[in-house]
Sequence to fold (305 residues):
Amino acid sequence: MADTITAQRVASSTERELFATDMIAVGYDRCRVDDPLFTAPTAVGGFRVVFPCQSVWIRTCRSRPYVSDPSIVEFYNDGDEFCRRPLDPRGDSTYWYRINEADLRELLRRYDPAAAEVVSPFRFTHRPTDAAAYLAQRAVVRRLESGTAPDDLEVAEAVLHILDRVLRRACQVQSSGGSRAITRNELDIADRAAEALSRLPPGRATLPMISRAAGVSAFHLCRTFRKVTGQTLARHHLRLRLLASVSALVESRASLGEIATLHGFCSHAHYSSVFRQTFGVTPSAFRCRPTALTQFSTATPTARQ
Fold:
């Protein structure tokens, strides 16, 4: 990917708005690899929190290239530009939540008062996603795509709760990030490992495979990945598979056993157990009520995220 992003701004024809008020908007962006817009520099309109559904390389005007996948949440200031590089052969798919500037600054003042007063309030481009927030935002999207007329108050309240939760966690990570200096080389190693995990079949990744892809020893990889991300490779891989399985739950008619196998779990029972520990609800319960905004926007996972 080029070292700089050109000033050209391309309006994305691949995004669709599902819901909008003066305060917030919800939508999605889906772009195939063969679409000319996939690699074109694209300007983001408004202040957005973005939840990726597939794996893709992203470089923004404020960041080095990084692997964007369901394990992270992204933050864009109004006018930020980004470029993509293929990783998943299906292309890029995201759900985005736009909030007006005044309300964003009010939310940020609770967790990062200094950021709330600068021109570009999002001082970070991406952070680890929050499991409960990820599930809740899929419930919001599912409700909006169901064809049932949405309750504006219920949707707006659910979205604000999600954004508040995501921003709180992101700012906590930001404030604790200075204790250990992370080098560019360490970031590159972690990204190569994340890329390898995105390409390998779910549940079949081995440490030797990932370390070869990252170009370092297994010991160095484990130590570096945990330093950069705050979690082990195994935990990251588990979360990635669980988060990816949410799309299958709401978008396919596959059985829970088939979804479990597809995402590398040894059995339906194992998948259900880990899903409940992570999200605070079983996959069958979420599948039966994927539009229950209040239930999932306030869910509290029982396991460490």
About this structure: Strands lie at 15-20, 24-31, 42-43, 47-52, 56-60, 66-68, 72-76, 81-85, 92-99, 126-128.
